[in-house]
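Researcher: Re-running this chain for the archive, since the previous output was lost when a drive failed. Same request as before.
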Amino acid sequence: MTVVPNILESIGNTPIVQLRKVVPPGSARVLVKLEWANPTGSMKDRMAKAAIEAAEASGRLQAGGTVVEYTGGSTGISLALVCAAKEYNLKIVTSDAFSEEKIQTMKAFGAQITLIPSDNKKITEKLINDMIDTARQISQQPGHWWVDQIKNPDAVAGYYSMGEEIWDQTAGKVDAFVHSVGSAHSLNGAAKALRQHKPDLRIAAVEPAESAVLSGKPRGSHRIEGIGIGFVPHYWQPDQVDEILTNTTEEAIRMCRRLAREEGIFAGTSSGLNVVAALRIAERLGSDATVVTLMVDSGLRYLSTDVYRL
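Model: Regenerated structure tokens:
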């Protein structure tokens, strides 16, 4: 390992680990990429760095400017890290539907928080749209630049490296990539990089069963932070996905607890959902195949929620 010149250069190159205890006999090898090894403990560090650097290069974000974004928390924390390192101001729109740990972490990095009240901590389409509208209004002030992650094409570039890392770490032995959908940037970016090496790689998207809009079902509320936004994201590419899987919040929570106790892997709820879906694919593909999914962030962000309140 070498010394890096600043914190932003430590983003990426996260470990990949094989699951042992939770994978049923006869299933494919299941690997999880530990994205919590990024500086803030989330894969969103990759996106935040890419989006801000693209805005700098294009002149949309000037020195001393203010970055604005709506977020469930992880994107906001990652933006807060990058803004602190690059000396930008940051205004975040979030909600009490998301964990207190995320809000406090954003504040620790210096972010100014606008909190939108939720309906009994439920994540719904209305809540996300209220957050978006508030961020849009704030961004109209002079010297402000809105990330607008769902519609920002620069965000996907941050995840190409993740796909390349998976390919290198598995020595090209990967048959399926499984990942949950929020903005769809991470799924699109990693899948594009992987398919440049292996065009027939199987791609499975995952969403909460309670709000399975990508599957053509009615929107609803759920408790899996960071995904299942209640409407089809701007950059959703259904023609690039082989199948869409759905599982419930409760299944995701149970898997988080199993991962912690049986594998020693401490992850957030969307990571639990990823593993539940990956195991379904692994059982179908059989023992000669390899399935890869992501540990999106750390369980440390969810200690105040019911995920680890046993």
